[in-house]
Design a protein that fits this description.
Layout (H helix, E strand, L loop, with lengths): L2 H15 L5 H23 L3 H29 L4 H4 L17 H21 L10 H30 L4 H33 L3 H7 L5
Length: about 220
């Protein structure tokens, strides 16, 4: 693996950050904020019709699948954590909770990717934005639905290394798993899911739950 250079960087970082207050809050809180962001996207997607709802649902399923994939790789590789062997940290996970890849990072990047892929269609309701405000609206959308979620995911990954509970290559792998699984899920399943949602919305009760207004 990348244990050599990654271990050197890990030791250099944790020598300065292992006792830094707030890193656990960033790691845990960042994931919770991204979960809330996804919930907001899901609520707003109801204004965007079946395609937006379907994309949001599939992206959410992809985020769950990304966690499952990360956990499967972790169980297969069984890489020891640096805080078991190299440094002492305050909240080192117990033996058997393997290091590679980082589940926190996989979840954070999966959720951020879900927000990016589902957020744009969720907020673009036809006719809702006057032309003169289109540029300002696009800039705001880029910040809210792309830049901020991505920065939160990066912050979670950095915090896990700063805590001393993951090597840098753990979080890189976790990020790759999170992004890849959600992108694959949306690419493969968004079309069929849109068809299924549109069909389900022919039932009045279902339409009222899934859509904010009739299609």
């Amino acid at each position: 693996m990348l244990r050599g250079p990654s271990e050197s960087l890990y030791l250099a970082v944790t020598a300065r950050t292992a006792e830094l207050p707030g890193t656990e809050l960033v790691a845990e809180g960042g994931v919770l904020v991204l979960v809330a962001w996804c919930a907001l996207v899901a609520w707003r997607s109801r204004r965007g019709g079946p395609p937006a709802v379907a994309t949001t649902l599939v992206a959410g399923v992809g985020a769950v699948a990304a966690y499952a994939a990360s956990e499967a790789v972790k169980s297969l590789v069984q890489q020891p954590r640096g805080c078991w062997e190299l440094v002492e940290v305050a909240h080192c996970p117990a033996a058997g909770d393997w290091s590679f890849p980082s589940n926190h990072t996989a979840i954070a990047f999966a959720l951020a990717t879900a927000v990016v892929l589902a957020g744009a269609p969720a907020v673009r309701v036809p006719g809702a934005v006057p032309a003169r405000h289109a540029t300002r609206s696009r800039t705001r959308d880029l910040a809210v639905w792309v830049v901020v979620p991505a920065l939160l995911a990066v912050a979670v990954a950095a915090a896990r290394v700063a805590q001393g509970v993951h090597f840098p290559h753990d979080v890189v792998a976790g990020a790759a798993v999170g992004v890849a699984v959600v992108v694959a899920a949306v690419t493969v399943l968004a079309g069929p899911a849109t068809t299924a949602v549109a069909a389900a919305c022919r039932v009045d009760g279902v339409r009222r739950v899934l859509l904010a207004r009739p299609s």
